[in-house]
Fold this sequence. Notes:
alpha+beta, D-Maltodextrin-Binding Protein, domain 2, three-stranded mixed beta sheet, disordered N terminus
Amino acid sequence: MRKFAAxxxxxxxAVSTGGCIGDRGGPSGxxxxxxxxxxxxxxxxxxxxxxxxxxxxxxxxxxxxxxxKIRRFTAQYPYVDIIKxxxxxxxxxxxxxxxxxxxPTLFNTFASEGRYLAERGWAADITELYxxxxxxxxxxxxxxxxxxxxxRVYGLAERGYVTGIVVNKRLLDERGVKPPSYDWTWDDLxxxxxxxxxxxxxxxxxxxxxxxxxxxxxxxxFLFEAGGEILxxxxxxxxxxxxxxxxxxxxxxxxxxxWEVRAIPKDWAVGWNDAISMFVxxxxxxxxxxxxxxxxxxxxxxxxxxxxxxxxxxPSEKAGGKHTGILGGDYLVINPNATRAEQEAAFLYATFDMxxxxxxEALDAEIAEREQDGQFYIPPFIPYFKNDSDFGRRVKSIYxxxxxxxxxxxxxARLFDGxxxxxxxxxxxxGAVTSMVQAVFADPGVNLNQxxxxxxxxxxxxxxxxxxxxxxx
Length: 473
């Protein structure tokens, strides 16, 4: 676990991967003057095409940002053609994509996938490119270290978060519920969720996600708060560890939310998008999430006032305990099957908006434009750069010049405690835990300990027993 205080400044880097974009004529591009370290494809500006991850349609602001980035990048590097890829990273598909040659040159992934991709040879070793990068000393090690494995670099940190609870203060006010202290507990959560529920109007106190792997992801935060672990690794063997006393207490909490205080939605089969929709439409007072997407939609698409959208740390199990949430993030990985020139171009694209004067000017202009349109700018919770770096101070200065930058509460941010997910079969584990959560929500009489033990046994036999730890430290 790593304790950290407010990580309140960031530059949105929605790197992406459809149609071919780029100037196919004109002079050869020149290396970045302030992007640092990498001068472009090695073969004298030979024309090169790279495919990149492109944000999903439900993120129009991120798409607009990416389109602007592509325009600026291809103006500076006209010999690079960009293809937008519609593929979203999926651990169940990445092997097929690699084998068929369909994986993008540059794709996004989760914090939990670094070792998985590196050990299987599905992430390029970019150590030489990284070491030559002029601004590497300013990169946030809290994030970047997740993709530094065995002394080698396999990805770039894009942004990070710690899972917390997003609270609709207006719904609490309507029910006469006083918002809890940021230093709250599981008992406080149960009390507030029960009081905020309004079944007659179809409003739940909290909407834990109950379908998709996000359901297992939600529950794991409570496992961590109770002091539990997903797995252990000993002598090359991976063992399930979530079925101990900590896991049982976390499962008992979910049972209480569903059947004692009856604070979850009647239709509890809530996925990621469902939960955010319920939140912004006033159908639930709380959701378990990182802050970016819920707050962006609440403020900019549903015009909720910022004082009604609060981001809380996860509640501690007991008073005085840690407010531990999953430390996650978005990372950029380069396809190891790409040519050297393609890999270098992908690295150039990935770092294009990092640490440059041009990126600061673009950030300032973007915030100003949103200000004119009555839109808020919501920074990622944890930046890719160090807060105390020169670049960090310059970003903070830009934020201070505008009135439409959403600010996370510093008193809340000081309490966040981040814990990294397990690094083996994390998504498969989440899927199994989702089935466990669904059993709890569906049956008040389910034997919780038996359910927990059976789930761990299945995860062990179907996933962990099949793993070969390949020896990367």
